[in-house]
Amino acid sequence: MICLLRVRRCHAASQDWALADGLLQESMRVFGYALERAPSDTRALGNAGNVLLAQGELKQLYLASLQSGPPPATEQERTIQRCVCIVVSVVRAWQR
Which of 20, 38, 67, 94 is the most exposed place for a label (fewest CB within 10 A)? Predict the structure, then answer.
């Protein structure tokens, strides 16, 4: 849970998406390990769910920053933006 607070602070302070994502991935590894050792541990399961929720929120914030920012300046940026838009449309279709 402390890691989730760090992610929020990290994002609020600098919008360091990679650092925030790395912290969340590390949290998921820790809770995954805890669940392997004790699959009925409801606290570990709840915290793993919170990490997944935070990962989704982080991705939404990242997408919003991409969409509200300046247009892509390079071909690589255009490709990344297209890929992100495709992933978002697939996720939205899946959620329906």
Answer: 94
Measured distance CA(6)–CA(11) in Å, rounded: 8
Whether the Cβ atoms of residue 48 and residue 35 lie closer than 8 Å to each other = yes
Report the C-alpha gap between 96 and 93 in whole angstroms. 5
- pLDDT less than 50: residues of the chain: none
State the amino acid at position 71 in one-letter form.
Answer: P
CB of 20 within 8 A of CB of 58?
A: yes
Cα(34)–Cα(57) distance, integer angstroms: 23
Q: Tell me the pTM.
A: 0.64
**Contact indicator for 13, 5 with CB cutoff of 8 Å:** no
d(CA 1, CA 60): 20
Residue in the block written with tokens 């959620």: 95
Q: Which of 49, 38, 44, 2 is nearest to 23 (CA)?
A: 2
* Side chain identity, residue 8: R
